[in-house]
Amino acid sequence: MTMARATTSRRSFLGHSYSLVGVVAALVILAWTLVAILAPYVIPHSIGDIVDDDYFGPMRQGLWLGSDYLGRDMLSRVLMGARYTVGISLAAVSIACFSGVVLGMIAAVTGGWLDTCLSRFLDAMNSIPSKLFGLVVVAAVGSSIPVLILTLAVIYTPGAYRFARALAVNINTMDFITVARVRGESTAYLIGSEILPNIIRPVLADFGLRFVFIVLLLSGLSFLGLGLQPPLADWGALVRENIGGLPFAAPAVIVPSLAIASLTISVNLLIDNLPQKIRDRDA
Amino acid sequence: MKSGVLNLVLKRLGIAAVTLLIVMFAVFFATSMLPGDTASILLGQAATPEAVAGLREAMHLNDPAILRFLRWLLGLLHGDLGTSYANEMPVATLIGGRLLNTMKLAGITTLLSVPLALTLGITAAMLRGSVYDRTVTVLSIGVISVPEFMVATLAVLLFAVYLKWLPALSSVNEAHSLTDLVRIYAMPVITLTFVISAQMIRMTRAAVIETLSTPYVEMALLKGASRSRMVLRHALPNALGPIVNAVALSLSYLVGGVIIVETIFNYPGIAKLMVDAVATRDLPLIQSCAMIFCLGYLFLITAADIVAIMSNPRLR
C-alpha cells in the first residue's frame, strides 16, 4: 500500500497532501463548471444559427470544432451542452443524495419497522435496472427537464440511502449517541448534529461517484432520444444527432463524446486521489 | 451449522420474491401512466366516441388499476403475456425469437469476457504496482467512466472506419457462413465485452488483492512458496467466492449495456423491441420486455448474493 502510494508525486496544501492527478482532475471539473455557468455569454454563435454551408464541416478558423449535421457551430453547441449535462446531473444528484442521506440517517436512528420497510422498499427499487427505469418513466410522462431531474434523482436515491444508512448504523452504536439519547435529544438533533458531521466526508465522496453515474445515465437516455428534446441538446443528444458523421470521423460526433469522458473520468480520478482521510468510510 | 447457510439462502430468496412483486407493481403502474388514451390511439383519429368507449370496455380499461394489475399477473402465471396493441400479435410470439437473439448476444459476450476479465484481473493483482497493473487499471477506469454508446462509437471508428474489418451494422438474417456470423456479432460483442470486462477486472483485482494481504498468504510466502504457487494454491481458492460474486454482478450490467448496444447496432433483440415499443406506446409489449429485463437482473444479483453467502466459510 505505502509503496504504491509513494511513487505518485504528492504536494502538501492546507494540511492535506494532494496528488498531481487529483489536482489536474479538479482543474478540469472547475473548467467545465465555469463553462456551464458562463456559456451563454461566451458562445460565438447562437446554438440555432446555421453558419456553415457544409454539414459535418472540419475544424477551421472561426468554427473551431467544425459544424454539425445542419451546419451549426459545434463549439457553441458543446459549450451550451455543458450547461444542460452538468446542470441537470447536479440538480438530480443533489436531490438524490439529500433525500437518500436524510432517510438513511433517520432509518438508522429510528430502527424498527420504519427501517425495515424503507430498506425493503428501496432495495426493491434498486433491483430495477437504472436504464430500464429511465426508459419506462420518461416514455410514460414525456421528457422535460424537471421530469428528467426527478427521474434521475429517484433512480439514485436508493443507492445513496443504502450507503448513508450503513455508515450511520456504525455511528449509531457509539457512546456519544447513547448519551445524546439519554439527554432526551430529538431525532432531528441526533441526525443533524451527531451523525451527519461524522459521515459527511464519505458521503461527499459518494456524491461525486453518484454524479458520474447520473451523467452517464442522462447521456445514455439522451442518446436513445429520451433525454433533452431538440432544439436543446446535452452532450448525449449531441452525439445522437450527429451520429451520421461517424463514418467520416466528423468532430461533431467525437467532441461531445470527449466532453462527457473528460468530465466523468476527472470526477473519478479526483475521488480516487482524495486524501485517504477524506475518502475513508470509517473516518 | 449447515442449516445457518440454508436459512440465509432461503431468506435471500424470500427477499428476491418480495422484490419481484414490488418490481412488477412498479413496472405495471409506470406503464399505465403512459400519456394518451390507448383506445383512441388504436382506433386512430377517425374513430367515433362510441367506438372508443366500446373498445375501452372490451379492453377492461375502465376497471380500477389494481384489478387490471391482478388480471395481468394472473395472465403472466398462465404464460399469457397479452396481445400487442400495435400489430395484434400475441406478445409471446413477438418476444420469442428476439429473446433468443439477445440471449445469444449475451451468451457470446459472457463466454468471451469472463476468461478475459479474470485473467487480466488476477494477473494485475499479482503484479500490483507494476506498469502492467497500472495500464490495466487506468484502461478499466476509463471504460467505466464513459457511456456505453461512446465505447460503441469508438469501436465503430476503429474497426469499421479506420481498419475496415467489420461492417458497422449487424443483421442476423443474412448469416450464411461462419465468416458472416463473425462479422454480424463482432461489433456488438466487442462493445459489450469492453463494458462488462472493465467492471469485472476491477472487482476481481480488488478481491484478489484483499486475499493476498491476509496473514496465511504471507505465511505461504515466508515458508518459501513460489509466487505463482502462493497465488494459485493459497489465495485463489479463498478469493473464488468474491470473484464469482463479481462475475455475477458484472453480468447484470449486460442488462443496461444491451439496451444501448442493440439500438446503436440495430440488432434485432428484445431491447431494440422494447425501445421501439416505447415509441409506439405498445403497453403489453413494454410490460413484458421490462419484466424480462428485471427478472434477468434480479436473478443475477440474487445469484451474486447467494454465492457470497455460500462461499463465506465462517457461516458453514
Automatic annotation (TrEMBL), chain A:
It is a multi-pass membrane protein. One of its GO terms (biological process) is transmembrane transport. CDD domains: TM_PBP2. The keyword Methyltransferase does not apply. Its main location: membrane. This is Binding-protein-dependent transport systems inner membrane component. The chain crosses the membrane at residues 20-43, 84-113, 133-156, 207-228, 248-271. It holds the Pfam family BPD_transp_1.
From TrEMBL, chain B:
CDD domains: TM_PBP2. Keywords: Cell membrane, Membrane, Transmembrane, Transmembrane helix, Transport. It is found in: Cell membrane. InterPro entries: BPD_transp_1_N, MetI-like, MetI-like_sf. Its main location: membrane. GO terms for biological process: transmembrane transport. Residues 99-310 form the ABC transmembrane type-1 domain. One of its GO terms (cellular component) is plasma membrane. The chain crosses the membrane at residues 12-34, 105-127, 139-162, 182-201, 239-265, 285-310. It is a multi-pass membrane protein. It holds the Pfam family BPD_transp_1_N. Belongs to the binding-protein-dependent transport system permease family. This is Binding-protein-dependent transport systems inner membrane component. It comes from Mesorhizobium amorphae CCNWGS0123.
